[in-house]
Design goal:
It comes from Fundulus heteroclitus. With about 425 residues, the protein is of the alpha/beta class. The protein folds into 2 domains: about 10-155 and about 375-415, NAD(P)-binding Rossmann-like Domain (Rossmann fold, 3-Layer(aba) Sandwich); about 160-370, 2-Layer Sandwich (Dihydrodipicolinate Reductase, domain 2). It is built from 17 helices and 16 strands. It has helices spanning about 20-35, 50-65, 70-75, 85-95, 105-120, 130-145, 160-170, 195-210, 210-220, 255-270, 285-300, 305-315, 315-320, 330-335, 370-390, 405-410, 415-420; strands at about 10-15, 45-50, 75-80, 95-100, 120-125, 150, 175-185, 195, 240, 245-250, 275-285, 325, 340-350, 360-370, 400, 425. The strands form 3 sheets. A 7-stranded parallel β-sheet has the order 3-2-1-4-5-6-15, with helices on both faces. The radius of gyration is 21 Å and the shape is globular. It starts with 11 loop residues before the first strand and ends with a strand. The structure holds NADP nicotinamide-adenine-dinucleotide phosphate. NADP nicotinamide-adenine-dinucleotide phosphate (NAP) binds next to helix 1, helix 5, helix 8 and helix 15.
């Protein structure tokens, strides 16, 4: 069973690494709000990063935002730098779980995973970078299993709503669910909204290096998953979706990769029936299509060259038509924003054999919640950590590198998220 107890030598349930980052700040606030949900109603935690001064400022800000002045004095600060392995080892020795908010993960993530595995700390990240996530699975699964350590990636908006949403849809379906399509829409209030530069940079380097992902995948040497039920038809690159009554495109983020890995784990380790998955995102009307095509063409051209990448990195607002910014969204913008994932599933009732004929039953479910990047992501990350701490017996039998769906399929994570404003429902 996973280690979840603190000891005098390992005093913190949670250490938030990268607490001084844009997202890290909000993870700090979310942890401070949920201390009573820790084991025995308590949570011991600390913040970590490379600048003591910045970390103290983060605690100061959180104390003000939450009206909890005690945060200034009661939360410990650990100085650790990705470039200094000894400092990472010292941090990991003190933590039951490291909540890693230092990205882009392709540059900074592996050293932290390695230090966690070697020093017996579980690791939760909010990466949306398939190359990093799958690379960690390839390189650290067996060591993590030997050490009884859980390395759970993608625990933010990428990809908990999609991955747990598919499992929720499967569990609500009466019979064998064989395919799900999800349609993501986001909305913002009168103040608008945007995504912080940290995610923009992760996306730039991810697209620039996408060929390496294919060679990484070949190293797994996976057999194709058995196909159950009718094959899910792939939609085009741009289409009008009757489901969400707007134009839609294939979702470019990490959700398809994460869901596929979860389905492989559940099929191979738990003899579950695999669910095929297609992910799409709504983009609105004709005006947005023109903007997106223009921005997309510039992005694809520039991302191939180092001078182009520098241009993109220096000018996120210009090249993304305001979707990304160096300052990130304001609190007011976050309050007015929300996301909605609609899942359309199909399958076979118990009376019908999935190897014969077409699916004879459908299901529609919804996962909806607050602003995706800096409200929903901290909630999902912190609830993932609390699930490890509170429900070790419901985790997979051995440690390893897991997707959220693989790690949390048998836990109450969905109930926990429901209580915190990320709501799963059947329509
Ligand atoms: N899954 C999701 O939906 C989701 C949502 C939000 C963010 N994210 C991901 O989270 C990551 C962070 O995003 P962000 O916008 O918060 O970025 P950010 O504001 O740039 O924060 C980066 C953090 O990393 C720290 N850092 C950088 N180099 C370091 C080093 N050598 N040693 C220790 N710490 C170091 C920074 O410390 P300093 O403050 O000292 O510079 C800062 O705390 C990105 O990969 C982003 O894609 C994912």
């Amino acid at each position: 069973m996973a280690r979840v107890e603190t000891t005098p030598n390992r005093p913190y349930h949670l250490v938030i690494f990268g607490a001084s980052g844009f997202t890290g700040q909000f993870v700090v606030e979310e942890v401070a709000r949920t201390v009573s949900e820790g084991p025995n109603g308590n949570l011991k935690w600390a913040v970590a990063g490379r600048s003591k001064q910045k970390l103290e400022k983060v605690l100061e800000q959180a104390a003000g935002a939450l009206s909890k002045p005690e945060l200034r004095t009661e939360v410990d600060v650990i100085v650790a730098d990705v470039g200094e392995p000894d400092s990472l080892a010292a941090m990991c020795k003190q933590a039951v779980i490291v909540l890693n908010c230092v990205g882009p993960y392709r540059f900074f993530g592996e050293a932290v995973v390695k230090a966690c595995v070697e020093n017996g700390a579980h690791h939760i990240d909010i990466s949306g970078e398939p190359q990093f996530l799958e690379g960690m699975q390839l390189n650290y699964s067996s060591q993590a299993a030997e050490k009884g350590v859980f390395i759970v990636g993608s625990c933010g908006f990428d990809s908990i709503p999609a991955d747990m949403g598919v499992l929720y849809t499967r569990d609500q379906f009466r019979g064998t669910l064989t395919a799900v399509e999800s349609f993501l829409t986001v909305s913002s209030g009168p103040e608008g909204g945007c995504i912080h530069d940290g995610t923009w940079q992760s996306a730039i380097y991810g697209f620039a290096d996408s060929q390496k992902l294919q060679s990484l995948r070949r190293k797994f040497n996976h057999k194709p998953l058995p196909s159950v039920g009718s094959k899910l038809r792939r939609r085009g690159a741009l289409f009008f979706s009757n489901e969400i009554q707007q134009y839609a495109v294939p979702f470019m983020g990490s959700d398809p990769s994460v869901v596929k890995r979860t389905q492989r784990f559940l099929t191979e380790e738990q003899q579950a029936s695999p669910v095929q998955y297609g992910a799409y995102a709504g983009i609105g009307g004709i005006g947005n299509i023109i903007k997106m095509m223009f921005a997309g063409m510039m992005f694809w051209f520039l991302v191939k060259f180092s001078f182009g990448r520098n241009l993109l990195i220096k000018n996120p607002e210009f090249f993304s038509f305001g979707m990304f910014s160096k300052a990130g969204p304001t609190r007011k913008q976050m309050e007015g924003s929300s996301f909605q994932f609609s899942f359309y599933g199909e399958g076979y009732t118990d009376e019908q054999d999935p190897s014969q004929g077409k699916p004879n039953a459908k299901i529609r479910t919804l996962v909806q919640g607050p602003e995706a990047g800096y409200v929903a992501t901290p909630i999902a990350m912190v609830q993932a950590a609390l699930t490890i701490l509170n429900e070790p017996a419901a985790l997979p039998k051995k440690g390893g590198v897991y997707t959220p769906g693989a790690a949390f399929a048998k836990t109450t994570l969905i109930d926990r998220l429901n209580k915190h404003g990320i709501q799963f429902s059947v329509i």
